[in-house]
Every structure is written in C-alpha cells, then in structure tokens.
Design brief:
- The chain is an all-alpha fold.
- The chain is 74% helix and 3% strand.
- The longest helix is centred in the N-terminal third of the chain and has 31 residues.
C-alpha cells in the first residue's frame, strides 16, 4: 500500500505497519456496529426493551470508534477502506452466528463472546502499536476501555 505522506517522526515502513493494524481494527469496528444493529432489531423477550435501548448508544459509540480509526489511518497518509467487501477481505476473526428473532439474553451471550474476541484483538494490536506509534496505541486503548464498559453492561444481564 502506498502512503500519500508520513506523519513527522514515523518512517514509511512503520507507517505502513500501523495502517495495516488499524485497517484490521477498522473493519472489525464496522462489522461490530452492523452486528449490534442486527441484534437490536431482532431480539425478543421480557428483557427486550432495556437491552434494546442499551444497544443504540453502543452502536453510536462503535461507529465513532470506526470514524476515529479511519481518521487516524488518513492522518498517517493511508486510505481507510470501509466498504463491505473491505470488511470481508480484512476479516480474520470469528463472527456471530445469531440470525433472525432470538431471545434477548441469547443475543447477549453471543455478543459477550464476540466482544471477548474483539477486545482481545484490540489488546494484541495495542501491544504491537506500543512499539510503533504510541498515538495510535492510545486511540485503541480508549476504544478498549469503552468496549470493556459495554461488555460489563451486557454481562450484568447474564451473570
């Protein structure tokens, strides 16, 4: 991938590595927003309204994370890839298998598992980024803090 420019203090090779890491995280952030909306529309049961209303701010937050990640990629001279086929091309994590109308708690169990993978992947990226670009690492650290908070909300309904 050719970069348009580099930020001061990062060479092109380092910037390319950082952009590749961030692109993977951008794809998962975008996918997560879609998954959360799917669950939001399709859950049912006595817990429906509380969980349904909990999901909207979560979707907005994950979309904001994706926007921040995409802007960081652009700041580094890259071109953020955010089309559906880009998500699929960059996807190397397990998705969520819930389809159709399901019990709200079943969706939360599936989302809890998905979030565990998402947070682990972000933490792996943070470790890599710590040595490459502390600014990008800090952005993902903020994202993980929010994701863990959301996972705690989900888990409060489960455990």
């Amino acid at each position: 991938m050719a970069l348009n420019f580099n930020v001061p203090g990062l060479d092109e090779a380092t910037s390319e590595k950082v952009v590749a890491i961030l692109q993977s995280r951008l794809s998962q952030e975008q996918e997560t927003a879609l998954i959360l909306k799917h669950a939001h529309w399709n859950m049912k049961g006595k817990e429906f309204i509380g969980i349904h209303e909990m999901m909207d701010p979560e979707v907005d937050s994950v979309l904001n994370m994706a926007d921040e990640t995409a802007e960081r990629i652009a700041t580094l001279g890259g071109s953020p890839a955010g089309r559906p086929d880009d998500i699929m091309k960059n996807r190397d994590w397990d998705g969520i298998t819930m389809t159709g109308r399901q019990d709200a708690l079943d969706y939360l169990k599936a989302l809890d598992t998905y979030y565990t993978t998402f947070i682990k992947r972000d933490r792996e990226a943070i470790k890599e980024l710590d040595d490459l670009d502390i600014v990008s690492s800090n952005i993902l650290q903020d994202h993980v803090q929010e994701l863990e908070h959301f996972q705690w909300f989900m888990r409060s309904h489960l455990f």
